Amino acid sequence: MTFLNKSIATVALCAAGLIAGAREASVPLSVPPQAGRPGAPRLAAEALEVGWDISNLNHGRVEFWIERFQTDKRDEFERFLERKGRFEQLITAALEAREMPRDLLYLAMIESGFNPKAYSRARASGMWQFIRETGSRYGLDVNSAVDERNDPVKATTAALKYLSALHDRFGSWYLAAAAYNTGENRVGRIMRQLKGRERGSDSDYYQIWPYLPRETRDYVPLMIAAARISKQPELYGFAYVQPMEPWSFEEVVARPGTRLTALAKEAGTSVEALRMLNPHIKLDRTRGDESMTVRVPLKVYASAALGRPTED
């Protein structure tokens, strides 16, 4: 056998940069102009009540980015919505387990468009866009064989630990998001200079924005714009987008240096499928220094008699 053992628990996740004029009132959403596809429904905002668990503050840059997502960045945002279907349940389950706001999902959306292999000019990688130093601080291994910044499961765990620590420091999810983007020491310094303290409220984000780097000024507006559209795609003309199926897989433990071709053959799947579920594996084999947990498509160990995975 290639595998040391099969995971006892089946992991099935199909169930589970520029700012102008802040308006800090809580939002009644306005109906935006319908852009793009013919026949997109024009729906009254009051007909589509949605819940929020982070602040949904009005701001001119939020409306700016909603318009951009409906026009010149429409194709890009469609892909974001499609991939959201694959990773939403994974991320929201992790957020719920840590008792964090589910709407932090949209931070991953604006960071990478839910692309586990995203890579930036600043050498940030993965769905949560970790630079190597910060990733290592939060337990993500990067070496010649694996880059765990590209592992959606491990990177999500690391990102939520980091965001939780930032929220503990700044007392605001908006300020935590700003710190996630530009660094906690910069946000802390700006808050101390302007407010005489580090901890603050979400509205403080828009009060300190002229002093933030250009990219960070748009960071929260981007997140809120993405959330508004994603929560009410019909309202913004995206009802036609078909989300990907949620991830579903089970885990096996492979011996050091197991070739993916051999692993795929034994698991009854393809190397392509293994790479989709394990985007952190960089080589044509698993890491050579230790055994490694690898995700394989759900049901590949189906019982011949029952036609479904065996249960202990």
Concise account of the structure shown:
About 40% of the residues lie in helices and about 10% in strands. It has about 300 residues and is mainly alpha-helical.
Distance between the termini: 20 Å
Could you tell me the number of beta strands? 5
**Biggest beta-sheet profile:** 3 strands, antiparallel
Using only CA atoms, what is the Rg?
A: 21 Å
Q: Under CATH, the topology of the largest domain is which?
A: Lysozyme
Spans of at least 5 consecutive residues with low confidence: 1-48, 300-312
At CATH level 2, the architecture of the largest domain is: Orthogonal Bundle
Helix/strand-derived class? mainly alpha
Number of distinct helices: 12
Overall pLDDT confidence:
84
Give the proportion of residues in helices. 40-55%
How many domains, as an integer? 2
| CATH uppermost class of the largest domain | Mainly Alpha
Percentage of residues in strands: 5-15%
Shape: globular
Strand order in space, largest sheet: 1-4-5
Order of helices and strands: EEEHHHHHHHHHHEHHE
